[in-house]
Amino acid sequence: MKREKRTILILLAEIAILLFFFILCSLSLYLYGHFSYSEKRAYEISWGISLPDQIKLVNNKNTKSFHGDGFRHTLYQIDQMEDLEGFEAEKREEIEEFCIEIVNDLAVEAKYCPDFTEKYVWKKYVKHDNDILVIIYFPEKKEFHLFQKTM
What we know:
Largest sheet: 5 strands, antiparallel
Strand order of the largest sheet: 1-2-5-4-3
Distance between the termini: 65 Å
Number of helices: 3
Oligomer: single chain
Number of domains: 2
C-alpha cells in the first residue's frame, strides 16, 4: 500500500514538473515574440531590406487578414536619411496612385497621409510578381512612408 502511494506521488510529481516546464517554455516564447516584434522588423524580414535604426513609428494601419494579405501603410519620423541609394527622385503618377489607393482603402487619417505636392524620393520592391512595397521619403517633413500590398 505504501509502495503504491509512493509510486503515484512520484508519477504526479513527474507530471507536475513536465507541466511546469511546458508552461514556462510557452510563456517564454510568447514574451519573446511579444517584446521583440516591431513593424520595422516585420518589413525587414518580409522584404529582406534594412531600414534605418533611428526611425520612430508614428502610425501603422493594415488590413486585418488571416492570411496576411491586403494593404499596409506605416509612417515613421526620421531626422536624417543617410542612405538614399536606389531611390528615385523623379515623381511618378503610378507610384502616387498606388499609395493613394492604399491609404483610401485603409481609411488612414489625413494627417498621416503623404502630401505628393512636396518633394519626395521613392523606391519600389516587387516579389512573387504581385506583392509590392513602396518606400517614400519626404525630406522636408522628415516622413518615411511604407506602402505594402500583398496578395
